[in-house]
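Lecture notes, unit on protein representations.

Consider one protein chain, 220 amino acids long.
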Amino acid sequence: MGSCWSEITGQHGIVLIRVIEVLGVPNGMCAHIEDHETGEVMVLEEGAELAFTLPSTHQAEAGRFTLHSVPFGSVEGRSPDCPDSEAGTIVMELGEAVADVTVTNYETMEVAAALYQETGTVEVPMAPGEYAVMVDAYEGTSLCRGGRRQVVIAPGEQPELLGLEPMPSDCNAGMASLEFELYGSGDLPTELMQGNTSVWSETLPAGEHTLEGIAQGSMS
């Protein structure tokens, strides 16, 4: 899940671990070490410390320490459903933690949004672009204090018709199948028109779809 550089010092059986740098921890994950003998917990973040005493053998008992990795503060950028739209969204999962959230422009660091005492699933309306999200959890609501995350909201894209193909079966003479792709995220209301008449409508998820059994003619 990543790596951690630490400094270990000790004297007369007392050992101190200090975290120097944490590398490669995935977005939305929090790691901490639990000492089952003392109950102490050290979150793997720069400057964190954990002190403990070793027995006379100078070796900790098997199972004394556990490394935990838990989801916290995952961030996702969701594109608008349509091109030229600014209706993008940043979605955060804070779990049971209570946290303040600050969204800034990734390059200029100009504040785009600030939210306070948020918990659970948090959605922030935001135009397409590149952002930095700062999560700062309140003490006692999460072992993980927070951190800075990068998130990109891509521009919305125009749905694409992939092709209108005649259906080969004799019993389907005069019918066709329509392949198309929906861009964006979430469920998208989709309608097929013949002139001013709706011949089919359904709510579909983003992705590629095939609609069969369509009477041939001018469609939109």
